[in-house]
Write a structure and sequence with these properties.
Elements lengths: L26 E7 L9 E6 L2 H12 L3 E6 L16 E12 L5 E18 L5 E7 L8 H21 L4 H9 L3 H9 L6 H9 L3 H53 L5 H17 L3 H15 L6 H15 L12 H11 L4 H16 L7 E5 L6 H12 L3 E5 L7 H4 L12 H9 L5 E5 L12 H8 L8 E2 L6 E2 L5 E6 L7 H5 L2 E4 L5 H19 L7 E3 L1 H11 L6 H19 L6 E3 L1 H8 L17 E8 L2 E13 L4 E4 L4 H16 L10 H4 E6 L13 H13 L7 E3 L2 E2 L5 E2 L4 H11 L3 E5 L11 H4 L3 E5 L2 H8 L8 H14 L6 H5 L11
Parallel strand pairs: 1-3, 7-12, 7-13, 8-9, 9-12, 14-15, 18-19, 20-23, 23-24
Antiparallel strand pairs: 1-6, 2-5, 3-4, 4-5, 5-6, 10-11, 16-17, 17-19, 21-22
Helix pairs in contact: 2-4, 2-6, 4-6, 5-6, 7-8, 7-9, 8-9, 10-11, 10-12, 17-18, 17-19, 18-20, 21-23, 26-27
Amino acid sequence: MLRASGLSSSEEKEDDAPEAPQQIPDQLPVLPLRDVVIFSHMILPLFIGRDKSVAAVEAALKEGRHLLVCAQRDEATEDPTPADLYDMGTVVQVMRMLKMPDGRIKILVQGISRARIMAYLRQEPFLFAQLEPVADPAAAQDATVEALLRTAREESEKVLQLRGVASPDVMSVLQGVTEPGRLADLIAANIRMKTQDAQRILEAVDPVERLTLVNTQLHREVEVATVQAKIQSSAREGMDKAQKEYFLREQLKAIRHELGDTGEGETEDDVDELRKALDKAKLPPAVRKEADKQLRRLSAMHSDASEANVVRTYLDWLAELPWKKSSRDNLDIANAEAILNEDHYGLEKVKDRILEFLSVRKLNPQSKGPILCFAGPPGVGKTSLGRSIARALGRKFQRISLGGMRDEAEIRGHRRTYIGSMPGRIIQAIKQAGTNNPVIVLDEVDKLGSDFRGDPSSALLEVLDPEQNNSFSDHYLNVPFDLSRVMFLCTANHLDTIPAALRDRMEVISLPGYTLQEKMIIARRHLLPKKVEENGLKDGDVSLDDAALEAVIKEYTREAGLRNLERELGSVCRKLARRRAEGEQGSFSLTARDVEKLLGVPRFIEDEKDKELLPGMALGLAWTPAGGEVLTVEASAVSGKGALLLTGQLGDVMKESAQAAMSYIRSRADTLDVPTDFTTEHDIHVHVPAGATPKDGPSAGVTLTTALISAFTGKAVRADLCMTGEITLQGRVLPVGGIKEKILAGVARGLKHVIIPHQNVKDLEEVPKDLLKRIAVHPVRHYDEVLQLAFAEGALKGGHAATGKARRAADGKKKDKDAPKAKKTSRRKAPETE
């Protein structure tokens, strides 16, 4: 980047230029300038920061110290090309050069001659052009030229006088220049002009024409300087008037003080109004004491003092906060249940918890507000659920977005000593609600940040603790405020990013997402009528059969929530609204084929169910934020030296599950009909398709083991069976999470059997009963039970009975001193989630 700047003598360190002028070459490096046009005989310092410009200067210093400087047509262009530069420029000589610590350089240049670019020879590593110097033609000294010279000198003197910098030395220099071209260049180099106007003067070869253009610019500059002088004079008069009023006011204050009148009528009126407002607010005793103290301070201050405004604003906040104003809770349990069911379908756990709170509140009105945290993927209705709770309770609703918040003062407020200080978002929300018991939703609590301004999550520890928030102290108020009557609701997508101390203060309620059946019901009851109305259609104009609605959900959305489904239904309604606007009459009844015509090719296609699986393949179940999925795990044994290769973008936990499965198979190779040399003669490759999608978690342990055994034995696994569960080195099957979503995925795939850990049987209560009739659930405790279900009867020589006998025989061969250790094998309860 280039700009004009001064160059002090102390900075002149390097490369003093020779005094003798050099002949101008016909080929020179080109230096683009952003905001300045250099004229002949003009000396100017320049800052240079662009790499190409630095390279051009360095090349000029090596070859004669000459450069061709040209102005850019557009100052914003960062890397100008020949088309971005004017054709006429100025050949300059680099007089001095100084390297700056930040990598830029500062040069002092002097204009030598105008030059026109004939052609650009190259553009890298800097612009290099062939040029033709343009000499000034001789001008006749007639009356016209003399008149132009005198006019230019007189206008220049006027400009200098209006700016207050008139000097006899400057005028003597102007009087000593008699050549019209030289005088035009001298004046043009020292007046303010736009780049286009300066370039026009530079391109004027005729000296008389050039001086005429300069006179035009001088006349314009005189007009601008005259107006500027008037503005400055008016501003000075206004400042004098303000100072006069200040002295008169101070004198009036002294006169009143001598007469015994210490206050002004306006201040007394403000204090009286604030006192009445504070009386009406019914402040607690400690708060009223602080308010009276600030009232006395305000009454003793001048009304125009800056501190008076701070105190007045502070007292306004105290008066407007609802210290004793509460909304009456609607404790009709049946009515609250009806409202919750009207606004949201499903979410039975959440609704039961709200009705429990209402019941406790009805029996014990002094109970403290709960701190609930709704955790789940985006779009499942966490925030809208807060609105429904407020409507069911009959309370005011406020929402505070915490996403990206990094300043602790956003929660606790700013000290009153800072200019523009305000209370925190909690106190602001209560003031806006107008009651001290609203429902406040703290949205995206898992996305709080922290930096040098503090940690907002730490400030929330007091807010979300019912044992402490009855005396919450905001930094701005600096008096306790009772938050125990507020019902705080938090929302989060992931609990892992919430600090443990903050998570411990909240009662977490998981919203795992909606099943296909639930989405269809919600779409018919809520989403489709809403979109029909928004797009100008009438009730009954649009109808989708079950196949069409299922196609929208399965083929155009893949999410746990409902946002994309709502967008796709909106897209359908917009296209139908266009057809209605074009004159089509009647209602629109859509089928699955119509949906594809309206929305285009399906974005998601479900994998087809395989009638038979090849050896080495097994069907597993996985949980994703978009719901459950059926994963095909493939294993293959090839010639090698026992290496284990895992592909499919697997996480560390899933890789460890594969290693545990390998160790289990090696320990049971003789009973599982697995070749004894498979670990030394073969490499094992395990792959999980959809390799671009990250996969992790221990729930694929059983599936990996089954796929490996199938690959080693050459026996195929049943194609109508899917499985999930974590496996240990002893073959125990441990519980995992997401059972509901996984079983629903198996049903949607058309599978008939599913294997789950025995400890996950309790999770079957969340699965709709009609779906459990469509798939047989097999709980297992040990992998031996999986063998009987995964392979056809007699496919393996092991099986449950055989493997049990072999295991007992192997146990009998152990030494007596090892027997007690075998009996003490840990059987502690495993975690119930992934």
